Amino acid sequence: MLIPRRAALACLASAPLARPALAQSQPQPGWSPTQPVRAVCGSSPGSITDLIARVVQPGLAQRLGQTVVVDNRPGAGGNIAGEFLARAAPDGHTIMVVSGGIMTLNPHLYREMPFNPARDIKLVSRITAGGFLLAVPASIGVTDVDGLIAHLRRKGEAANYGSPGIGFAMHVGTEVFLNATGLKVTHVPYRGSAAAINALLAGEVDFLFDSRGPLLSGLQSGKLRVIANGGTLPDLVYPDLPRLSDRFPDVVVQSWTAIAAPGGIPDPILRRLDDAMRATLQDPEVVERLRAIGNGPAYLGPEALAAFFAEERARAARGVELARITPQ
After folding, report:
1. Which terminus has fewer CB within 10 Å in the chain: N or C?
2. Both 122 and 259 in a single domain?
3. What is the number of domains present in the chain?
4. Global model pTM greater than 0.90
5. How far apart are CA 133 and CA 278, in angstroms?
6. Mean pLDDT of all residues in 147-151
7. Burial class (CB in 10 A: 0-12, 13-18, 19+), 7
């Protein structure tokens, strides 16, 4: 019996970790939570961020010596959850599994933000990072980036690309890619990845960036081809796929997740949360489950993550400027 992919992922994320692996990790000395820890998530159950939260949930609970509860608060592109975190007491009992878009793109997409991500939220540990894949219809005969550039130049004003919507990382990142290549291509926004990929399959658009999961059916059927990795890390399934940043240093089209806390959180609590997340991401069971949903661990601690965040903010600002997005 075939199980729908979303249902399979949900089952995977909710399955308990092997107890022996967890039993080896005991709560560390220092600060410990005195009540259940609320892990806020800005998207609905079954979303990729929610699945990641539920994969790391048992390991965090084990290492913190306290229950960790995932609290889904979707809406406003994650701003509802972000505001909840920003207003929470900085005592370690409220954290958030935050996506890169909330932290870097939302300030450019919303005229009135209920919080300042750079001031009111403290990033603790990066959990995952992965590049969006540059995909083309197999029917156009393009096998690499040079071939795509030549194809788009031949089409001229008729060339276009798809995205899941205005302001998504895939839209903003594509504009950075086009600026780096000097190409003029029309953006065709759709309502979600499924609609954009259907348009790619039908030949209505020439290329797009998206995650491996939504592209999988087209890749397996041979109707789609991926020709480049938009991220800075090798892809889990296509480790030899060329990275655009190796050729165009400014072109980085990727997603990431991190554990975050309210701004002003004391350093000892931040370090304790970071220690718990770092150890959790070293657990082979967690590694396997993250890879199964297409997001291998990509740990960064507070200092390295702060530098990474600064780079991502600059990229987002540049991409939004090139895309000429007006805040709503």
Report:
1. N
2. yes
3. 2
4. no
5. 27
6. 97
7. exposed
In a domain, 228, yes or no: yes
Do 126 and 184 sit in the same domain of this protein? Answer: no
Burial of 154 (0-12, 13-18, 19+ CB in 10 A): exposed
What one-letter code names the amino acid at 54?
Answer: R
Which residues share a beta bridge with 128?
257, 297
Three-class secondary structure of residue 305 per DSSP: helix
* Beta carbons within 10 angstroms of residue 111's beta carbon: 8
> Domain boundary at 247, 278, 295, which?
247
Q: Are 70 and 37 in contact (CB under 8 A)?
A: no
> How confident is the model at residue 28, as a pLDDT?
53
Q: What is the CATH number of the domain that holds 63?
A: 3.40.190.150
DSSP β-bridge partners for residue 105: none
Query: Using one digit for the tens of pLDDT, what is the confidence trace for 214-270?
Result: 999 999 999 999 999 999 999 999 999 999 999 999 999 999 999 999 999 999 999
**Distances from the Cα of 222 to the Cαs of 120, 163, 183, 215, 242, in angstroms?**
46, 21, 27, 11, 19
Domain of residue 169 covers 140-247
> What are the tokens at 252?
């980085």
What one-character-per-residue DSSP string does 231-263 give? SSS--SS-TTSPBHHHHSTT---EEEEEEEEET
Of 324, 311, 293, 327, the residue nearest 56 (C-alpha): 293
Kind and range of the H or E element at 94? strand 94-99
